[in-house]
Amino acid sequence: MSNLRVISGSARGRRLKSVPGDTTRPITDRVKESLFNILGADIMTSTLLDLFAGTGAVGIEALSRGAQFVRFIDRNRLPVKIVRENLSLTGLTAQAEVFQMDAFSVLQGDVDRRFDYIYIAPPQYKSMWKQALQMLDDNIGWLAEDGWVIVQIHPVELEVIALKNLVEFDQRRYGSTLLIFYEFAQ
Hints:
27% strand; 7-stranded mixed sheet; single chain; Rossmann fold; alpha/beta
């Protein structure tokens, strides 16, 4: 049985299915609670792009707390199936899109919607977060004017990245998880 759950909002307390094996990096309740405390009421009526979605726990938490819309992207079949099942379990399917696609292809593709939040949590230790962040910086139209990009990595993965459109404005460390926050450069 999974110990993933929705912490707050309309689906509070609902258990989420997890992806078997170690191909995903599930967010802990502590980190998720801290993240949504930072986002606060701004999550209400917002839009979120959940790249490398895994179980969908971050996007589903956002929907449960009042986000208007979340698009989930994962290239692997099983995580996509689990995200769809978790959306169904929480009754949040209507406000979501789930695509089995490579996140890098999405970021290089045509922008069809701007998102208030873009969450990047790729598999650990593969430098995928840097590639995704640089691609997003190059195709910045995905991010709404006052939007944030949030990267979830292990602290040992942290490197300084030269970006032209985005600037880091905060970091929060929770044990073996580091959240890095970016916004438009002024």
